[in-house]
Design goal:
Layout: H1 3-12, H2 19-30, E1 34-35, H3 36-47, H4 52-64, E2 69-71, E3 79-81, E4 89-93, E5 99-102, E6 128-131, H5 134-141
Parallel strand pairs: 4-6
Antiparallel strand pairs: 1-3, 2-3, 4-5
Helix pairs in contact: 1-2, 2-3, 2-4
């Protein structure tokens, strides 16, 4: 995604365009499922000296604006992605912690129809699949 497209995305979400926001959002478009430390390193490569706190503040603002989704698989640090609003899920490698997107069931999404809603108005479900990525599975087999 180009810098102009990122800037437009920020404006459309009602956020002010800043160097830090553009850098963080660009990094997340280029590196899905990225943890905060990696975001900080990548942002500093493209935007110069940016504080940890500035990156945390930007991630929070982008998440609150709905431009970024925060995920945190059990036993893992928080990670961020720009694929939002489609109720997709994730598969996580137990060995190397790689994460990949998994689309929700085709057609009627059974994961959004719980056996008992307890009166809640359900609008999203999170499913995490666990296993070994192809590289780790191949290494384990040899």
């Amino acid at each position: 995604m180009s810098g102009a497209e990122v800037e437009e995305q920020l404006r459309e979400s009602g956020l002010r365009v800043t160097r830090q926001r553009v850098a963080v959002l660009t990094v997340l478009h280029d590196h899905p499922h990225t943890d905060t430390d990696t975001v900080i390193r990548q942002v500093r490569e493209v935007a110069g000296d940016v504080s940890h706190q500035a990156v945390y503040d930007v991630l929070r603002a982008l998440t609150e604006a709905g431009l970024v989704r925060r995920i945190q698989p059990t036993g893992s640090v928080a990670r961020y992605e720009v694929r939002v609003g489609d109720n997709h899920h994730h598969v996580v490698c137990r060995s190397c912690a790689a994460i990949a997107d998994v689309d929700c069931a085709v057609g009627e999404a059974p994961c959004l129809t719980p056996s008992d809603t307890h009166g809640y108005l359900i609008d999203q479900a999170e499913v995490t699949y666990w296993g070994l990525c192809p590289e780790c599975a191949a290494a384990a087999a040899s």
